[in-house]
Amino acid sequence: MGHTWNLSGVKHLRRSPLILVVFLLTACSGTAVMDMVNRDVSDKRLVASDEAYPIDPLNQYHHNLERPINTDLSLHLISERNTYLNTGESSLLLVGVTTRQPVQQPLQLHALIYDEAYAMNEHITTIGLITRELVQQADNLPQGSAITIDAAFQDKRLSYNKPALHPAENSRDLVKFLRSFAQTAATGQKQHFLLVLGGHEGLNKKEKQDCLDIINILQARSITTSVISFAEKPDFAFLAKLAENGHGTTYFHTPEADMQGWLSKDTVYISSPLIRDAKLTLQAENGVEIAQILSPRHLSHTTKQIAVTIPSLHLGDEYVLLAKIVVPPQDKEQHINTFTFSAEYYSPTSRRFERETITHSINFTPDKNQTLGETAFPIKRAEVILGTFDSLQTAEQYIRGERPYQAVAALTKQVSQIETLLRKKSDSELLRDSKVLQRYFERLLTFNDEWFQWVTIQRDLQWNADRYNYAYK
Fold this sequence. Notes:
The chain is an alpha/beta fold and 473 residues long. It has helices spanning 33-42, 49-52, 121-139, 174-184, 205-220, 236-245, 259-269, 377-400, 404-422, 428-445, 454-461, 466-469, and strands at 13-15, 19-22, 73-79, 83-85, 89-99, 108-114, 146-151, 191-197, 224-229, 250-252, 274-284, 289-295, 305-314, 318-327, 335-347, 352-365. 33% of the residues lie in helices and 26% in strands. The longest helix is centred in the C-terminal third of the chain and has 24 residues, at 377-400. The protein is globular, with a radius of gyration of 24 Å.
């Protein structure tokens, strides 16, 4: 899910022996970590990989599994291959849920622009680019849609050619700026605020919490809020929490990012109906065992069952997990069922609880040559995605050990893995990852010996760590 659609896939974890309740930030609703990494690399900063490694990497990506047509939800089970040695072996299984593609609804969009450094020419240029993209997207929405644009400052270099909700002011007070809209926000037709944030380093923790509480006021009126950030030093935790409270999504503007693609998905996402209380159960059969769940990390399971409850899932969302399984030996060539995957959920279309069930089976053979088939593409792609985050952690360890060129080697190896897959099939998200990693190791190659001093490295890797993980309410 490349662009800014998935911070963690999992917001909160509550474990029991069989059921893990997952409050889902899917690829459509969170902050993609690779976009955060891209923002850091654009700032010529090293990446603090412990903060950059998410709980649920795979659900930050779109996996292009087939969507349902006649139902709101469909299930998928994909194994590495369909034939296994009858002596037994381990394998990978991709478990997926897809939902019906939603229909775009009319929207009233309100862009709110705030930037502490609005006087800078490059910021004005960026604001102009972003607002042109917003206007273009609004023009493509269904009949009855409209857009207003308000800025917390007046600048003759900017011309929006769109109405404003409030008269323009010159204010560096983001709390006051947002409060004025909370006081006058209308209800009725679907309202969606797009908070366009530049520099916000001057905000203290109290001011940031006030902003979050004001977004809660808007949400209480069924008004959603998404965040567009072009800040040079964004507070990732703050921006992600703004979007979470506003039931919206987050976008980090960089030269490589696809803003129009993000806007198209964001405007569909915030108006799409919810599938509620989706209870997913994967049951192993005939001696097959679930050995490990590779993503999401820390997901509770037994050797025979994975059970996940997703309280709400937007139409258009996907949810996947990758598991390592052990296939037992068989005494003869045969065909057996290995898993039953079921889902119970409340359908917004039928307005009733529905149930879907699929089974998965494999063949056994004593002939090794019959098992030489190529790994299924969705499995290989999932492995490469996990490898990207592993490579960032490995690179950081080498950098801390003052081995920058070995860090470059680790990143280069991962880029090669990505490019091998891209030669088989084009993929915008993997292409983005490849470019980000290349820019990162190019940055490392420009460092001289004097730069590699322990204090400097530590300061750069740990700079402003709160912006990743401060626990806003």
